[in-house]
Amino acid sequence: MDYKQTIADNISSALDHKINRKDIEAKIEVPKNSKMGDLAFPTFILAKELHQAPQIIAQNLVKQINTEGFDKVVATGPYINFFLNKSKFSNDVLDLILKQQQNYGNNQRGNQRNVTIDMSSPNIAKPISMGHLRSTVIGNSIANILSKNGYHPIKDNHLGDWGTQFGKLITAYLKWGNEKDVEADPINKLVEYYVHFHKVDKEHPELDDEAREWFKKLENGNQEAINLWKWFRDVSLKSFNKTYDKLGVKFDTYNGESFYNDKMDEVIQMLKDKHLLKKSRGAEIVDLQKYNLNPALILKSDGASLYITRDLATAIYRDRTYHPAMNLYVVGSEQILYFKQLKAVLKEMGIPSADNLHHVPFGLILSNGQKLSTRSGRIILLNKVLDDSVKLAKEQIQEKNPDLPNKDNVANEVGVGAIIFGDLKNNRMDSINFVLKDQLRFEGETGPYVQYAHARAESILRKAHVSSQSIVSGSKSVSDPAAWDVLKLLNDFPRIVKMACDEFEPSDIAKYSLKLSKAFNKYYAHTKVLVKDDELVARLSLVKSISIVLKEALRLLGVKAPDQM
Ligand code: ARG
């Protein structure tokens, strides 16, 4: 229920609609001190228009306002304070949640318009790292949040499957590689060849020429080059998909960089037609001085394409294919300047939807405070982290709840959920120091803590032996003041869903779920739910509503909510 809206309507009609309802709504506050009511409206914003002192306005308005649904409405100095009728509030909120179930909080702001989400996008022949984890889980959650706001998300895995590094990889494989080794342990072997190449080429620069030659052959469709590249790509994807399966993340398209190989000539032509390309030391660049940015390098002196060349083709392709309301790139903050360049070039090209391009950056994952990188050898392998987490979760469950049915399944949901939640609870832009044990605790700000709150709600409902039908149709007026925080949080969920969407910020949902879990645990510690009195069914409807909203919040994050754990 949006009580701000009700209040704004009331005030606006008391003023004969002289003041816009939306302007009033925007000024309604939640007082810091609950003695000042549940909501408050500062009247001084009307003083100028009404030519009256704020105190007078408050006193006059209070007499005219429709007070239905409120316990009292009082003027205090330049404020009008609204005290909600708690039992009506409880009824309204719980009734809506139980009617709408998991659809509670849905809105249709997106009008089913497409939003493309460029996410995960690891590089072929390299391990999918913790850094790519962030893009994967943030992108997946943003997609869920967009759907809940009525958009139609399209998740695209823009694989790094093209570029001069494939020339190096082919060269290295042909020199030192072996088919059997690659089949047995693809990513590790390919990384080994690549690293070896970089060691040797310092003393043998001719290797670089060879690699360039191979990439040229690849771009020109040489069969041997293509076959090797395809094979590298297949074995890498197989390994990536294992990780995606564990995370429960699916993509709509895997249009990696190679997909745009035959679409770049047109881009170059468009740039030429607009006289945007300039020669600089043999290479072709677009000058971006006007944007205060470094020039964008579009073609190397040997004519080879670059990352940005492929991204230009990508953005234009998405535009034509999906007409997206937004084209999002969930990519680390190291690439902020790069995406500014990309957007600027598209603008210069006169691509109308350049304005719909949003880079959604995020911070680093650190290990012991240090940056991870393949080169330094400081890498945390995502697959291993997920396996370790599930193993640890299993040990915890074994200890806490040895008779639990379906233990393996639950351990999976808890172990994987802990990793996803441990990431998403942070503001997107913050760097995360990764400590597995901390993410798996059942106490504190963790995924398992929220999952456990949900499982506790479900366990109460099981023990109650009251049919869900009687809960849905029964009374929902919880008068216990201890329930008030929970009720207000439940009522707030639809607003949080909108905010998370506007800010592309899954942490809004994660933080909300922590707050709701805490409030529920506090309520539960204070109140015996399963006592046979007049309010039993109402309390159960509260518990059921909590379970519904927690499960839905976790779903938006891409985390499962087991009924028992
Ligand atoms: N493969 C790149 C990397 O690992 C990320 C690609 C992001 N998407 C894009 N359209 N540029 O850094």
TrEMBL record:
GO (cellular component) term, any one: cytoplasm
Protein's UniProt keywords contain Ligase: yes
Keywords on record: Aminoacyl-tRNA synthetase, ATP-binding, Cytoplasm, Ligase, Nucleotide-binding, Protein biosynthesis
Compartments in which it is found: Cytoplasm
Stretches assigned to the Arginyl tRNA synthetase N-terminal domain: 5-84
Reaction it catalyzes: tRNA(Arg) + L-arginine + ATP = L-arginyl-tRNA(Arg) + AMP + diphosphate
GO biological process: arginyl-tRNA aminoacylation
EC assignment: 6.1.1.19
GO MF terms held by the record: arginine-tRNA ligase activity; ATP binding
InterPro entries named among the record's database cross-references: Arg-tRNA-ligase, Arg-tRNA-synth_N, Arg-tRNA-synth_N_sf, ArgRS_core, DALR_anticod-bd, Rossmann-like_a/b/a_fold, tRNAsynth_Ia_anticodon-bd
Gene3D superfamilies tied to this protein: Arginyl tRNA synthetase N-terminal domain, HUPs, Isoleucyl-tRNA Synthetase, Domain 1
Primary enzyme class: ligase
Domain DALR anticodon binding intervals: 450-565
Motif 'HIGH' region: positions: 122-132
Subunit and partners: Monomer.
Family: Belongs to the class-I aminoacyl-tRNA synthetase family.
NCBIfam families: argS
PANTHER family in alphabetical order: ARGININE--TRNA LIGASE, CYTOPLASMIC, ARGINYL-TRNA SYNTHETASE
Protein's name in the database: Arginine--tRNA ligase
Organism, scientific name: Philodulcilactobacillus myokoensis
